[in-house]
Amino acid sequence: MEELAQKGYVTPDGLRGTRFGEFERLDLGATSVERLYKAGLDFSVAATVDFPCQKYKAPKLPKNAKPDTVYVQRIGDRVFPVAVAEWKDPSRLRSVDDQLKAAEQAVYGALAMGLRIALTTDGVRNRYLDAVASANAGEIVEIVETRDFSSGVLADLYRGESGLVRNPRPLAETVWQIIWHATKAEPKDCLLTFVEIFMLKFLSDNLPLSVLASDHRFDALLEDPEEFKRGKGVTQIEYYVNTIRPRIKQVFTERLVVDDGAVEDVFGLATITSQTSIINGFAFLRSSSTTTIASYNRTFCEILDEFQNFGTLTNIDPEFKLRLYETFLRRSARQQRLGQFFTPRNIVKSMVRMAMLNQLPDGSVVLDPAAGVGGFLLEPLLFPDSLPGNISFRDGLPNQRVKLIGVDVDVNTNILAKANMLLHLAESVRDPHTTTTALNQALANTFLLLNENETLGSLLYPPRASVDVILTNPPYVTQGSSIYRKEIEEVNGPRNGVTLKEYYDTGGLGVEALFLRYIGGALKPGGRAFVIVPLGLLNRTAQRMKEALLRECNILASIQLPRNAFFNTSQPTYILVLEKRRTVAQSRPDVFCAIARSIGESLDYERVPTPDNNDLEVIAELFIRHTKEPKGSPVSRPSVYAGCEFVKLVPSSSFASDERWDVVRHWTDDEHVALGERAGTIDRDEFIQLATESLKELIDELDQAQRELKSLSSGTTRTYSLGDEDQFQVRSGMRIRNSDLREHPGDIPVYSVFTRPDTVKGCISRDWIKDHGVEPEEFPSVSVMATGASAVGMVFNRESGCVMTDDVVIVQPWSVATQLKWRTSTSGDDVSQHPEQGIDMGYLAVALAQAIAQGGFVYEAKLYTRRVRQLQVEVPITDSGAPDLERQRQIAALAKRLDMIRAKLQETGAWSKSVRLS
């Protein structure tokens, strides 16, 4: 009885568990079946259990079984058990043996209590088991049920109706077609109409009569149209519009002041007023001015019949609503024009998992500044390892352990988010102790409509270091996005303590660049953001924007999503994970990079579930694992993580402000082939749109580069010979054979003749190279490929700590004397990493590559040290004749950007060639 008492299940009226729909839930683990019987559960303890366990070591007596969770049903003053569950950490359900052991434990616990239903779960994946059938068969027998576990699913299982899957798609599709044929409304307007009727049915099935009287309920409309008109004097649709609809708006008021001061403080606003209800999009009211509302009564009654045939909405699966939104929004033309792409639930689910919201302390703030229909904030309420029970109601007031705030500029989307939230609070809606006033306040405090400026929306009031986690999919708009910056320039006076013109002056194209500035400023030190961004944002040469973001944040992860992951576009997208820097001097971690080829559902119109094909789910689990691991030495090159071929850890230096932030380049061509990546299928119109956008971006970047090149090339230069030993060191690497690498493996990277800068020949033992009289490179260098038909003459920058083979020429722009002087005179606190003698290392690589190309050496079979010493490079100098380091670095940065532009151009061509047009 001790555990039962500690958890508050023992009351003066007997056992009472946590409410779970029409059931109650007892979370246990240390209480035996015998104790539950003695505590008052109405069942008989089995004397024996005739089931052959292969992996689970069952107790000798069934009465000693200890289920993790027992679900019970209260009928009058009697409490009957209906099911048991075994909860396991995901790591304990990986192997087939682990899964069998958990299933046997659940079945044994159910049989010990005389129950049919058992399940195993890790909080994400569920396995439903028929204990009685398993005992009869002598092996585990599963119940065919694909939905996530909920009280509605339990009710179906208990009543033997598990096969009766209430799939929202047929209902949604049918009603959509009915509405569209009658009104020709856009999909979003059809959705809003569906939501209105859906909410009427839902509220009618759940609210008490004291709140929604009989005359204001769905059932009041279910009458023969002629009899209804004789009795009421109007048609059903007129009665709904003039009587029922106003009552629902009265219950869920359109104007309510946010009463949570913490929410107002986030945006620096003294007062925020919610201006929407849970309904306001009845397409029949928006139709032709020549058509009366009564003329739609037959259509309206047809829709009512569809809902009535669907069944009650009392024990509705919370995922029902999200699936409905997917059905309606995936083809919404208006959504596509706005660049607001509804985030598929499977992507939301993985991002929420990565955010580890359950670890947030009380009072933390989770924000979505482009909330849409609210998936990022409401999905966590569904997951046991996220924020279950986060929203509660006590003494007529709403309470949130972690504050969830969603902002949007669109009125209709805000309505959809509130309706969505109400469905997620279905149990509270049914609870007679929860008032509609409290429900209203919870909706108003969570989903904010900030449309004072309909162009800027949430950007008008940027939070300042006040948010713990941001989960968002900001709008993607590049064409015509200049209107946003013009609008910002027109804003007078400060907003939340900042002048917007200065605050958002960080460069970058598109609205998503403004949102990244918003996000970087909003996070608290150590706070994290999980943001969906287009590929174009990451591979643009937007150095100023990236510098500004890196001043505030570290990049934790860059995850490529598959094309067509979103309903409305095949635009390549990424999940970018950021963490606000705690100090200016904080080190930067390795970047977790991944390529998701699948998201657990087909990437076509049908969106067929494919739970066994979900790279993104694996990536989310590995990200969590990586985040929790003690941090060791940073990686020196892209390295496969945890044996997963589509996940790598990449040095943070590869995500500097002058680098691309996408991940494709960190996998070799052979690795991409091994991953089996395939080009997607898009229609011709979208191909033209995507190709045009890509080419326009490239042309803009080339124009800018050309202007900079003209400016930087106009200065004076001096010719330097690499044979000048007072200025350069030129030498070869050491001989290292493949057999040496196999026989003496270690951790020192070995670079040889390759066409990619990040390709290593292998890693060698430090002791082995020391025995051969060589130490790892003490300083950075520039390497020249001396041989190889396709590699000869290629030039790469190399960091210290590596070794190079004897077919690579090593160049350093300082003399031996300068090196000795630097070594003896430099203190341990000196931030310089290598000697300097007037020539920048990055510029030297550019100048060397140019000299080799101009000299025709790229066609030579050999380019060893003697020939390299014959090369000459032009070095920018100042008016006084001294080497101009600043101009050198600018030229090196420009050359790097040109390489990035060339790579993007090549990728665009490869995509154009491989993509399939429908």
UniProtKB/TrEMBL annotation:
The keyword Methyltransferase applies. Residues 324-626 form the DNA methylase adenine-specific domain. Keywords: Coiled coil, Methyltransferase, Restriction system, S-adenosyl-L-methionine, Transferase. The keyword S-adenosyl-L-methionine applies. Its EC number is 2.1.1.72. GO terms for molecular function: DNA binding; N-methyltransferase activity; site-specific DNA-methyltransferase (adenine-specific) activity. Residues 688-715 form a coiled coil. It catalyses: a 2'-deoxyadenosine in DNA + S-adenosyl-L-methionine = an N(6)-methyl-2'-deoxyadenosine in DNA + S-adenosyl-L-homocysteine + H(+). GO terms for biological process: DNA restriction-modification system; methylation. This is site-specific DNA-methyltransferase (adenine-specific).
